[in-house]
Amino acid sequence: MLKKTRVVLSVILFSLITFYFLDFRDLLPGNLHFLAEIQLIPALLALNIFILLFLLALTLIFGRVYCSSICPMGIYQDLLSWLSKKMIKRKKYNYSKAKTVLRWSVLAATIVSFIFGFTFLVGLLDPYGAYGRMVTHLFRPAYLAGNNLLDTIFTSFNNYTFYKVSIYSLGVFSSVTALITLVVIGYLAWKNGRTWCNTICPVGTTLGFLSKYALLKIQFIDENCNSCGLCSMKCKASCIDAKNKQIDYSRCVTCFNCIESCNRDAMNYSLIKPKKKKTRDALPAYTYLKDDKPVDESKRRFLSASLVTGLAAGSLFAQEVTHGLNMKRELKRQVPIAPPGVPSFDHLREKCISCHLCVSKCPSHVIKPAFLEYGLGGMMQPKLYFDKGFCNYDCTICGDVCPTGAILPLTKEEKNHTQMGKVQFIIENCIVYYDETSCGACSEHCPTQAVHMVPYKDSLTIPEINQEICVGCGGCEYVCPAIPFKAIYVEGLTSQNVIELEHEEVEETVIDDFGF
Amino acid sequence: MDRRNFLRAVALTGAAITTMKEADAMSLLTQSFETANAANYDLVAVMGGEPEAMFRKAIAEMGGMKNFISKGDKVCVKPNIGWDQPVEMAANTNPKLIAEIVKQCFDAGASEVTVFDHTCDDWRKSYSNSGIEEAAKKAGAKVVPAHQESYYKTVSLPLGKSLKNAKIHQAIVDSDKWINVPILKNHGGAQLTISMKNYMGIVWDRGYFHANDLQQCIADVCTYAKRPVLNVVDAYRLMKTSGPRGKSLSDVVLSKGLFLSQDIIAADTAATNFFNQAREMPLERVSHIAKGQELGVGTMNLEKLNIKRLRM
Hints:
Chain A is about 45% helix and about 10% strand. Chain A is mostly helical. In chain B, strands 1, 2, 3, 4, 7, 8, 9, 10, 11 and 12 form a 10-stranded mixed beta sheet that branches. Chains A and B meet through helix 21 of A and helix 1, strand 4, helix 7, helix 8 and strand 11 of B.
């Protein structure tokens, strides 16, 4: 029953948050972003006291149910270990010793680097953020491709239930990072269940520490237990030492698989009993059915090898990308453009864990992960680019969905007055200037008329810019048809401004004749 | 089903779909472009009513929708849905007018009515916030997407000067008749956007227009062999400044006008003269109109036309 409840809850929450990332048609209610907000690191960064207290209380009462049912990365791993169990007959887990030093070192390194302003590590290791990137960069393209296939079929029958969407690369570095995450964590889960959660994940370490003091715990009923070891074989966290009837609560994710597996009702989930003095781990850790396996050499090799490969691949791509940028076109934008509602780059660097929910949700496709534009610590954080579209003037979705408060929520009114960048006009590149024909595409798209057309030669009009009222939406840059170099573009700002728009009186114009 | 059967089935389905498409294309080649010419007037201008009422008046003067739409026709109604703006901003065609036209098409026996525009702002937002998607669907029309190149088919424009071919949306290419329903607006580049400029929403590559003499390209695309059977200019509200997107209500004039003509040049000439009363806009400045007349698309000489002026 306990296990069933856990599984049902996990499947529901996991499906919802995954589909929320994928759902480009807004089929799900918009307020589902609370599923991202209840994740621990986002709540911590957003300083959401309410959610933090809730998670704290949850863990102190029930143990690590967060890891079991709320964290999508945890459920992703359960899914893979479940699959591996389906594929590999007689698959079983074994008790292993806690990797206490490794866990705490990773946690310490994450905290220290965060304090020193290098949020990248937090973003990289936060299970929610990492899962978000997996969905955005790997699952979403597949979902979109499926949609396009359906569109092709339905549209050929003159049915427009589906519509085509573009699928494009969101930046090599982030996508490769997402792929490595998927493969490494997936492989570990396939082999050994929750290894990631109990060796690397900083959230797992923290909650593990707290759950040692949980009120409700899984416990042996000594009278019934014959130390058969079944529970230990079922434990995906490898935290049950069946021989000694000991459970390492810092690693137990309260999945209840053990209770389910026990044939003798020798385990229950109940209020902790006052214990006899705990024997300080003097006994060797081993289970009944298998010999000692103190060090898993292959796992260790795999971990270090993938780390090295990952780093090498990263730097390789880094070289490639910078090289490509320099070769292909002149690098015109000096300062990147942060999404609307990011007060400053410092704020972004401090708060953003690069879950890429904003990237997934932006209906105009203008947000993509940065590479080195914000510096090393800002890798994978969102920036605006105008190759596929421009930022819709009235749209506030990125700030609405951001779970960490890196992109602050704006009202439509505030958004209309938020300056993300300033327009730059290069007249030599302008079609009106060098072809002497009409254009005006830039001004056409400008919501504040920061780009407006003024009389030029004959009946021609040419763009004139007013940076003071530019919001930096990129409409002009996106649409400018001048080749090979655009005549108008947006330069980013390290901190965003509030612009003042002139309030124009509505003057009554009466037309009472046809005019011809 | 074994794999072989499955593959065979897939191949057959694919082949079937291909031939179906083929057949459509063939029928297009043989279709005729005749339009009814029983219209009583060359141009009907209405003032002072609500959008749908003015249209009802105007089309009645033209002898009713039956003059233009035949039983079984696949009709495409093409509004301006360029922007994510509400109806008060006059950036998009009035949804009530679109609903009325769709309804009348069905009343005249149309088998299907499609509505689309190649929007400038995000198409989902523009379709919904303009109110047109809802109004058209309610009236029974199919509102189809136009945001991907795959929805467009290449057609040649032998009469064009700067523009020799264009990719035009299949909803128009595959239709029997289409109705052009622009809104009257100021336009930073083309000066005004009316019926002719509304053609830029049926093509895929607008950038080419801007980069290759915008005014000439607008005139060129209007030479596309399949002319709209009607041009209905929505001037219920007109955008006099900051067009075509508009920035505030001060850009909008409640002008309560509507112009109806089969001659796109005449419709735009009349609408320009009408606009000229809200803000100075001599015809020469909207140079794509004269360029269109040069290409033989229609006439700017309103004197010679049989015009009906109506007030409500």
